[in-house]
TrEMBL record:
Organism, as annotated: Pseudoalteromonas espejiana
Highest taxon in the source lineage: Bacteria
Gene3D superfamilies found in the cross-reference section: 2.60.120.1440
Biased composition (Polar residues): 211-231
Keywords: Signal
Domain FecR protein: 58-159
Name of this chain's protein: FecR protein domain-containing protein
InterPro entries xrefs: FecR (IPR006860)
Pfam families recorded: FecR
Renumbered residue ranges of the record's region Disordered: 206-231
Signal peptide: 1-20
């Protein structure tokens, strides 16, 4: 009898452990390159792709030139940069009560996060790092680990970083500083401008845009975190946030997509594109979306670099709130190319945002890619 009770206890323990490990923490909304999830309880690894579930015991890693984005169970968003490692120690959310708690750990690399309902409703949301623990008082922040130092940016709201010596560094809203560098020795350097590791370049497109205007616009984008922010700077920062977090309110978008009729033609209104051969010019992109049939009949991308003209044609389907796209033809000058493209609707389906990558088939070292925003 004792042996039977012991066996049942062991079985129940295994069952509960398995059930805990199967608690969904979120969904993968973008996985580019090498993105792996390792189950902490079983050590089993799996390659993550779009729409795959991530669980409350997963350790997620991204490789070289890889990135991933996740829509968490409470509506929060997490984007992992290349060569990063994130441990989801705990992520629990009850849809019925709208309550929960979360604890994640950035082990290396970088992440950007927008917190969801857990924090909004007063739940515990903690981010551990090699230099200390972060308590979230706001919504939108970014971390980057570089050679033992950690760089912090608070784009919206505020955070409290408790260092190993128990001192607290507060950044963001109602604080004098929104950016900081914490060295491996625990020294804190606060700044009013974003550290260079967070610098991004965006070129908004106007009707009269030309190649001569772009360097000035890009310089403006790189300085959009200064204290004297202009309206133009704000729009560029908004594009950055949208491109980094390709996630939406699914229920609302499904209704909007179902109600829309006809064919809409989208054009690029902003972009961030780079090439292995240097400067990019004359970027254009279009996408035709047929809401009646749920298809993307055709789309095109074109731009120039030092090696000649890049061109790609693509098509696809509307998959709920996302777009499943495939490049059907690509070339660079006279050389055949291949590539990938990902895109989603934003909360207003008059906006599509995403990214693409292209490379020559015979010489993959020659490549190009970037992010885009499209509007009718």
């Amino acid at each position: 009898m004792k042996h039977l009770i012991l066996a049942l206890t062991t079985l129940l323990s295994v069952s509960f452990t398995s059930q805990a490990s199967n608690t969904a923490a979120g969904k993968t909304i973008l996985a580019r390159g090498d993105v792996l999830a390792t189950d902490a309880s079983s050590a089993q690894q799996r390659t993550l792709k779009r729409r795959d579930t991530v669980f409350g015991v997963d350790r997620i890693t991204t490789g070289e030139k890889s990135k991933a984005q996740f829509s968490m169970s409470d509506g929060g968003l997490i984007a992992l940069k290349e060569n990063s490692e994130l441990n989801i120690a705990n992520y629990e959310f009850d849809n019925a009560t709208q309550q929960g708690s979360a604890s994640i750990e950035l082990i290396k690399g970088g992440l950007r996060s927008i917190s969801g309902v857990i924090k909004k409703n007063g739940g515990s949301y903690n981010v551990k790092t090699p230099v200390g623990s972060i308590g979230i008082r706001g919504t939108h922040f970014e971390l980057q680990l570089v050679e033992g130092d950690m760089y912090v940016a608070v784009w919206d709201g505020a955070i409290d970083l408790t260092l190993d010596d128990q001192s607290v560094v507060s950044l963001g809203s109602n604080e004098p500083f929104s950016f900081a560098q914490v060295t491996a020795l625990g020294d804190v350097i606060k700044t009013t401008q974003a550290p260079a590791v967070f610098t991004q370049t965006f070129a908004p497109i106007d009707d009269d845009n030309n190649a001569e205007q772009q360097p000035e616009q890009q310089s403006l984008a790189q300085n959009n975190t200064s204290e004297n922010t202009t309206d133009a700077d704000t729009s560029i920062a908004d594009v950055y946030a949208e491109q980094q977090f390709q996630a939406v309110s699914n229920a609302s978008l499904i209704d909007q997509i179902a109600e829309r009729q006809g064919v809409f033609n989208y054009q690029a209104t902003s972009f961030d594109v780079s090439s292995s051969l240097g400067e990019v010019s004359d970027f254009t992109m279009s996408m035709s979306v047929d809401f009646d049939n749920g298809t993307v009949p055709d789309g095109e991308i074109s731009f120039n670099d030092a090696g000649g003209n890049w061109y790609a044609a693509y098509s696809g389907l509307i998959d709920l709130t996302k777009l499943d796209l495939a490049i059907t033809f690509a070339s660079h000058n006279n050389n055949k190319a291949t590539g990938e493209i990902d895109a989603v609707f934003l909360n207003d389906i008059d906006t599509i945002t995403g990214d693409f990558s292209l490379e020559e088939i015979s010489n993959p070292a020659i490549n190009a890619g970037g992010d885009f925003r499209l509007e009718p």
